[in-house]
Amino acid sequence: MSEHRPTRRNVLKAAGGLSAALALGAGGVFATATAASAAGDGFGLRIVDRNESDRRLKYYRFQTDAIGWNPGVNVLLPDDYATSGRTYPVLYLFHGGGLTSDFIEFDRAGVRDWTAGKPIIVVMPDGGHAGWYSNPVSSNTGARNWETFHIAQLLPWIDANFRTYAEYDGRAVAGFSMGGFGALKYAAKYYGHFASVSAHSGPASLRRNLGAIVHWANVSSAAADLAGGTVYGAPLWDEARVSADNPVERIESYRNKRIFLVAGTGGRPVPWFNQVSEDNVLQGQREFRGLLDRAGIPYEAHEEPGSHEFRVPLFLRDLDGIIGRLRKA
Q: What are the boundaries of the signal sequence (predicted)?
């Protein structure tokens, strides 16, 4: 069977000034997928497109009531998956936001080469252009319940269809930018699901700087995903939802997890909105780290020159740490 590429959904036209609102997720420069033979549908998911011809990279597109269109997922298998018979830990790897960002970002960036010879399955799901790994307060364009899709549907589907350790010590979650926020959020809200969490230029504080990240999430989601709806509500926020999602308000939920944080400190000319984005990330991660310090919760953190960008060498370091923390294949 000839290999086919995932059908890319139509790119939404940017509203005026949207670049700044999407800067927290823009910069997704990420490419190809494989999987073991997935058996049937279930968990509220129905497969409507798939390509399993590649030895390592498997592609699926699902129909689900949680999302008003068919989100895609790439599953990257270890080199020896088909022949080893072993069970593997899983990394859920989340893309950033932006009008050109989707589940094949990390494929484009080179995740296949990064994981060559590594004993881990990497799941790269769609998260919307500005879905913020959340069930929104409102949507004017149908269901966009990314949190439900990822946690209640996709995660158990992966465990049912691949040889995974379906347990706390068998899973990690990581992401870039908006995806880094999603990783921090899911690791806290669903404590028993993930033993390791990594945020590469991902915001860790929603309320600081007069709620800059909440406003970003609301404006970007309204323009790019929800046709005027918002993740957290506008003009008034759903305060309980903000607190439930806010990493700095859930410090105890990170205890006994491996935590890996990366943020940029500036230092070279970049578009102003890109640096503004990373300034908020940096400040939020410093706040988060201070709270972890006070709680006696260990972590590994890196502040690097540059702005809002994905740093491959630090991801490779992170990947080795993830594999070291999870159950061995």
A: 1-31
Distance of alpha carbon 72 from alpha carbon 249, whole angstroms? 32
Strands 258-264 vs 300-304: parallel, antiparallel or unpaired = parallel
List pLDDT tens digits, range 287-300: 999 999 999 999 99
Phi, psi of 45 (to 5 degrees): -115, 140
On the question of pLDDT at 13 being above 50, the answer is no
**What is the distance between the alpha carbons of residues 60 and 71, in angstroms, rounded to a whole number?**
9
CB atoms within 10 A of CB 168: 15
Residue 320 domain-assigned (yes or no)? yes
Pairing state of beta strands 72-76 and 90-94? unpaired
Q: What pLDDT, in 10s, does the model give residues 88-147?
A: 999 999 999 988 888 899 988 999 999 999 999 999 999 999 999 999 999 999 999 999
Q: Which two tokens stand for residue 159?
A: 């465990």
User: Is residue 290, in this structure, part of any structural domain at all?
Assistant: yes
Q: What is the pLDDT of residue 32?
A: 28
Q: How many helices (H) and strands (E) does the chain have?
A: 11, 9
The domain total for the chain is 1
Q: How many residues does the chain have?
A: 329
Structural domain harbouring 49 = 26-325
Angle at the Cα of 181 from the Cα atoms of 169 and 159, rounded to 5 degrees: 35
2 within some domain? no
Residue-level pLDDT at 99: 83
Tell me the whole-structure pTM to 2 decimals: 0.88
Q: What is the CATH number of the domain that holds 289?
A: 3.40.50.1820
**CA 301, CA 261: separation in Å to the nearest integer?**
5
Residue 10, in any domain of the structure: no
Asked whether the beta carbons of 135 and 148 are under 8 A apart, the reply is yes
Mean pLDDT of the chain: 87
Query: What distance in Å separates the CA atoms of residue 231 and residue 215, rounded to the nearest whole number?
Result: 10
**Cross-strand partners of 171:** 90
Contact 203, 262 (CB under 8 A): no
